[in-house]
Amino acid sequence: MNDMQKIVPDAPSRDIPVRLHHHAYVCSDQARTRHFYEDVIGLPLIATWIEAKEFPDFPGRELSYSHTFYGIGDGGALAFFEFADEDAATHFRANEQRRFVHIALAVTSKAQQNIEARLNAEGFPLRIVEHGYCRSLYVQDPDGLLIEFTVDPDDVEDINAWQKETAHEALDRWISGDRTINNDIRPHE
Questions:
Q1: Within this chain, do residues 172 and 116 fall inside the same structural domain, yes or no?
Q2: Domain containing 67 — which CATH number?
């Protein structure tokens, strides 16, 4: 089995992305961001680029910025820009993310427990949700960006096979107005 089949079982024979290269945000303080992502979460800092260029938002001005990357296990990264000019930093600042706008990273149960312990030790508020198809830890970073660390259950392969078989049918039902719940594995809250 090749790597693409592991990512997308029975994928059609067409070119599709093989992994997330990076997901970029704007932060207000690279030192604070580094502490959160490297020291607390455990993602290693793998690159820092310092650059300057003109952007259409600020014609005639060269803006100085740094671009850092924190590695995740599949070779992808979370990336963060910080701008030296206060007005550029304000203009490009990331908006605080609401509950449903977030990035989710798969972790082992042990990694999730370790992240939870470090977040608690640092005083970061977090939320744990049992979805049935995964257990999720949610936390906002120092700039208000929401990140989820999720652990798959032991029977994830069975759940994924069932979803693969029913995903189009369930989406068609939703689109047609049928709101019948199909997540009967979520614990009652």
A1: yes
A2: 3.10.180.10
Q: Answer yes or no: are the C-beta atoms of 150 and 77 closer than 8 Å.
A: no
Q: Work out how many domains the chain is built from and give that number.
A: 2
pTM for this model (two decimals): 0.85
Query: What's phi and psi for 147, nearest 5 deg?
Result: -130, 140
* pLDDT digit string (tens) for the chain, length 189 residues: 444 444 455 555 678 888 889 999 999 999 999 999 999 999 999 999 999 999 999 999 999 999 999 999 999 999 999 999 999 999 999 887 788 889 999 999 999 999 999 999 999 999 999 999 999 999 999 998 999 999 999 999 999 999 999 999 999 999 999 999 898 888 866
Domain edge (last residue) among 65, 94, 123? 94
